[in-house]
Write a structure and sequence with these properties.
The structure is a homohexamer. Chain A is α/β, with parallel strands linked by helices. In chain A, about 40% of the residues lie in helices and about 20% in strands. In chain A, strands 6-11-10-9-8-7 form a six-stranded parallel β-sheet. In chain A, strands 3-5-1-12 form a four-stranded antiparallel β-sheet, covered by helices on one side. Chain A has a two-stranded antiparallel ribbon with strand order 2-4. Chains A and B meet through helix 1, helix 3, strand 7, helix 5 and helix 6 of A and helix 1, helix 3, strand 7, helix 5 and helix 6 of B.
Chain lengths: ~280, ~280, ~280, ~280, ~280, ~280
């Protein structure tokens, strides 16, 4: 996590919501200090420690935040996750944006954890680039909190040769050779395969990662025989929670799941004001 | 929709994904021109015309985009939504980010349309501030595409007096009077009520909108009797798709649904390259 | 007021003036600590507490700022408004930008207060969107400091149907119905009227606010008879300080004044260095 | 003028006003094309050609803008300054922000021209750093349009030794020598003087510019005798329009006027829609 | 190369130089159109096609740019690299910033090409993270133009375990296992080694890349025997042009050179105005 | 130096390198506190105090930085320049970017000092606008640290009439008169001359600074006779370290050197971790 980038993003998110001012919270005349709890209203995995830790400080440096959970912790319904103490106006101003983030990140961590547990340690669960625009760093962080792994972060850090790329070369071998000729030693090359022949060709051309795209578990089991141990394997393409077990049994090393981030269900987390703090 | 703001956001989203360059698409030596289709792989409502219209132009002004659907159109599985023609490198570079947005916005429009149809015209469906940080303008636009209505856009455009705000005043009347004394004539005041007494008090204090928070349909039916016609009513708080019919039958005017935006399921849309264009 | 946004604006304003460095203040070799006063050289209303409070901290966190007035306070010529203590270099660097803002905001508050006093409590004074580009939040804040009210903050938070909008519809009724059909319950609809018939039509179509544009006090008095109590009324269009009394006597509820912000006269405020602080 | 910077500023200003969308203009269903005129409702000097030229293009590249005046032109009440043709929605969206700028800049140009004419060619009129934060480039441009001259643009391009700076040195000579020792040959050094002795000292120390701060015309006449021709002279400090003639008669070369920019009166300019364009 | 990001950077660079306006070029009254050539005054490799291609368009879209060379082309002293035609004012405004970039990038490409030729195809030359802050994308692009390869782009795309990282683990094996446990399959792990034992340990722990840091060619030759073919090897640490041959002879696969970017010598390129274009 | 601008630049530079997170440093589980030294591995002049002072604070406010040198100090090989104490993760994250800046700035200061010493006090050494895009403020600061002087900071603060500008006027006199007519009293006018006649013309037209462009020392000696004392003189154009002595002997007042910033050799500075701090 890059805290400097996170701070910059939190500032933009808070400004998006507060705009020219909080018409409701700015009605208070006094500077009453209150105490409030962040409470989970649903069980799942928590993610978003830094969001909470940095977020309120940006709004008002005098707010004190005590967080009782760590990223990746299992939280039960009704648990107090954190306590916030400070100016009522400031606490109410930041509530919605910070909860929106906590709920989304914890939702991603929770569904990732579910996927991980369904894989029973046989295979690793990873994400895709199907993240919410603007939130890639945070959403991929949440996947890690849930026990998942990150696939590439963007177009800039790994080569992925999909069918539309391969169509531009004479063969998989041509494509991989071109990549090796142009790119340095820190970049891995992944090839998306749809047929047995493509797997064989990708192996012989020296791919670092072979992805089985839209294949059945049976097809994958079959084709894994062509893949030597040094090459990483990945199953991808419309795999749902119910499919994980059968894919995991094939022995494929990674299963990438777009829905972890593109179809997130928020984990219900709310802020309860406990009342004014007596001086 | 503010196109200037949208362009700025699209630039940031594209830079988030492309980073220092697209390692894969930049492998192509030639400048092959291809033709590609945007195809729906699932039925639902389309949203995101401007995203597609402006997005590819930002990456490469020479790309031609023909879009065959309008925002809010019902699209069937397999339909060709748009055709893109231009440099293969540029089309592949923008694919993921633009699809991520189209899928998210169309997903929101689609679930909104489902909620709207369940309300059978008895009540209006509206959104909340539980949107994805950074995407409020776009997600609220998608709700409109689905036939829903927008609740306030931020803390800056409507007063919402929740329990945590009311706790800072001697009474609902005190809170509303304070707001009227401080705020101009373009701002509406909404009061969140949890009890019958609060409804009565909010009506007598002159609230513009009364929200029934976490109330059963029965409670709402009961309490609507105290609300004169000039005051708008809204049901809120954990209402799911299955609950819409019973809430709609109460006669409440708006039902606000957080899940429209906080727990979005992406609509499956993809880009199919049709091949190189012959010169 | 959104402090996060204010900080961002102050940073940009300070960078605009300091640029690549303060050639004069950077001549000092030593780090002499000085004490300085912010003094009003003219009577009026003060506005800009947060500007002063946050501004010097951005330049140099070690500067101590003691502010003796609150926003909206009447300040007499010669009054010490604040005392600043810290590095001479830092205090001189920020002087001009912060005074530019204080003078402008206090000027707006002062002229607003004059308008408010001329209205003798009969009507409320409000601003317009004729603010300085880039300073809308601050200038509208200053209007409130002077006892005025804010009209809409931008095109995004209230519908205003002017003649140029109405020309696009078959009638005022058509325009309002279209707006009601498309927009949610938190948005008010204001209609600009120039004739008696338009007033009657706007009332019957259910406008929330009726603006009398470029009407004489007599015309307004006449036309107010058609407007029921639940509809807010506003006089607008080239009204000057001298006209306020006669408009206020009509019983119209709001008078909006473009000159509050578009033709501001700065209130004279300056910084006096009192000398080096002895260690 | 830096057009790249101007574009960036215009984008920010338009986004400030349009926010998440123009609720009123976005009500139109059709894409009616209209024609509109920019008309002066007051006589004065025009400034803002580039604002108009670039501004509408940022909102909608298909808008055609024909501008009939040049910056610095005298415009009479009722003159058509420009014609705009394009989508009604787009034209209405940009109207207020662009007019706000045109009015402010033309107001500055007009008052500058008045000051210039009062100086009757005996002395040059210049501005100060008392500009609106965020608008320095534009406001100083407007001063030039009115026939005035620009004083320094910021703390970064000229040394100005005011009393608070001089207090940090043993003498004016010490201050100037320090500056000459530290700064290169492209930077001029101006010294603010309040007494005859300071003038004499500044001359002998080799100042490039001598400012007479808060001096009467008589004092200036007296002290100019000590200033050789190669040193530029400037009168400053609370000089109003009525004082210009007597200051100009002293033979001082520049008179700097803070009110040109800090207390601007907008020139009244408006946009008149002429109606739909027939296809 | 990410053109969107490049445009954003070019805008900032141009604004840094032009500031509030080009005092010299803005002196011209007319809009004379001129023709100018970009000429190399030194032999070397060219890099910066997109800088030139996009740069002038940002300043003035009417400028026509014809570029006669491609990135990576060898250019001889006196060659005309490009011709620019358009407004004199605009061409002079952009000259310095664009040349600064072309000179720097071509300088990097040229020295890289020299290093590549010294390696005689025995080993690849690559860069480091010792790039100029703000210019990483462009400088790493220039290295590729010169025939070199890119090492990691930042801390975010490859694991590099240096001595300071290894000090935080019980052993190299512990460090690599920790990385494998936490990180996905697209990330390579490089280990910096200083001793023979570290090489042996890194090999057995499964490093993807082994870097020989500050080792002599003899040490590297010796230690390469422990490294199986599937692991990439890299020599690093203060290697100069004169050392390349002896390092290349060791059989190490990559030599990384900090000086390619941290101690760049600009290639001399200038703009010659050929005169006004006759209408 | 503008600290606010520097902070903004440092944030961008750090984000460029850290991106979505530091894959290596984020492997540490614990929050070990370490102590590290910044050490010079080469002799030269130090520049970059504020970079170090502000930089680590941006990454992690709990890091303590003790800097033992001032900008412009001569540092010997092996000297400890600063000590850093704090979280190992944070210290390693910022290392490369901060060293990249320190090395570049100290390299510039060092070569400037060399040039200054070669001039033996006979003439001043100054920089040009051939700085790295994005780093002008910092690089020009480094030139001052080395005892050099700054030429203009951008196109906005001094008029420089080069051959390409002069070509647009009927004569040097015409150009200077135009500039004097348009520009205020704080701006100096420099004229680039290539012939004796141009020098004579520039003197008689009242240039403030005369630059001898691409002239031999002999030519300059010859032509200096035409230049009265009040006009500053500058030699420019491809002057290298070896040429300084002969140019300095001519009596010219400034020698401007592009290579100070366009062909910088980094000064070798590194960070040595001393180990974990015992609690």
């Amino acid at each position: 996590m890059n805290q400097l980038l996170l701070k910059k993003q939190l500032q933009e998110f808070l400004i998006e919501d507060i705009g020219t001012g909080d018409l409701s919270a700015d009605l208070f005349n006094d500077e009453t200090e209150i105490s409030a709890s962040i409470v989970s209203k649903e069980s799942g995995l928590f993610a978003g420690y830094e969001v909470l830790n940095l977020g309120y400080g940006l709004i008002d440096p005098s707010i004190q935040t005590s967080i009782y959970v760590k990223d990746g912790d299992y939280i039960e319904q009704g648990m107090v996750l954190a306590e916030i103490r400070g100016s009522r106006t400031s606490i109410l101003k930041g509530e919605r944006v910070l909860l929106n983030l906590l709920q989304r990140l914890s939702g991603i961590a929770s569904v990732t954890a579910k996927a991980v547990s369904l894989a029973k340690g046989r295979t690793r669960i990873c994400d895709t680039r199907k993240t919410t625009p603007g939130l890639r760093m945070l959403e991929k962080y949440a996947v890690r909190c849930g026990g998942g792994y990150n696939h590439r972060f963007g177009l800039y850090d790994t080569v992925m040769l999909k069918d539309n790329h391969l169509a531009g070369f004479s063969s998989i071998q041509d494509a991989i050779e071109t990549a090796r000729k142009k790119l340095g030693h820190t970049v891995k090359i992944e090839v998306e395969t749809e047929t047995e022949n493509q797997v064989i060709e990708a192996v012989s051309a020296g791919a670092d990662i072979i992805m089985f795209d839209n294949c059945t578990p049976e097809e994958i089991s079959q084709r894994l025989r062509y893949v030597p141990e040094r090459i990483v394997t990945e199953a991808s393409g419309g795999i749902e929670l119910d499919d994980i077990d059968s894919y995991a049994r094939t022995g494929v090393q990674y299963i990438s799941l777009g829905f972890l981030t593109h179809s997130n269900k928020a984990l219900d987390i709310s802020l309860n004001v406990k009342g004014a703090v007596k001086a």
